[in-house]
Amino acid sequence: MTENIINDEKEFGSIKISNDVIATIAGIAATEVKGVAGKSMGFTGGITEMLGMKNLTKGVKVEITNRVAKIDISIIVEYGVDIATTGKNVQENIKKSVETMTDLLVPEVNVNIQGVNMEKEEKEDELVVQ
Fold first, then answer.
1. Where are the domains of the chain?
2. pLDDT in tens, 4-63
């Protein structure tokens, strides 16, 4: 677990925030955006998985250098949403949440759309067939 020192003041000691904490904040912020169905496991094996609250850091990569955070996140969107707008909203919400909660600068949030969730449409089709 990588930790990053957030303050340089030694009056009371240092504050360290784990990359997992940043990833959790980013994961929650992404799932708050309307149109996001879930997060993807990422690039490994092409396998995507809808994730619940227990796996908030899955599909999120965080790199921190000199109090600047670069965040990559893989998500799945709902069928029918404007994908570009949803991606921009995810970027903005992650940036705002991480900067507000950690005092880090977040100049870069890369959103990778890994899939489209069509579950609602499939359920409606099942109801019609039966």
1. 3-129
2. 656 556 678 888 899 999 999 999 999 999 999 887 654 433 333 444 445 678 889 999
| The pair of three-digit structure tokens given for residue 10, joined into one six-digit string | 């030694």
CA–CA distance, 88 with 55 (Å, rounded to integer): 23
Domain at 3-129: CATH code:
3.30.70.1350
110: β partners: 72
Spell out a b/e string for 33-67, using b for 16 or more CB atoms within 10 Å of the CB, else e. Answer: bebbbbbbbbeeeeebeebeeeebbbbbbbebeee
CA 101 vs CA 21, 85, 116, 128: distances in Å: 10, 24, 30, 47
Note the pLDDT tens digit of each residue in 63-118: 999 899 999 999 999 999 999 999 999 999 999 999 999 999 999 999 999 999 98
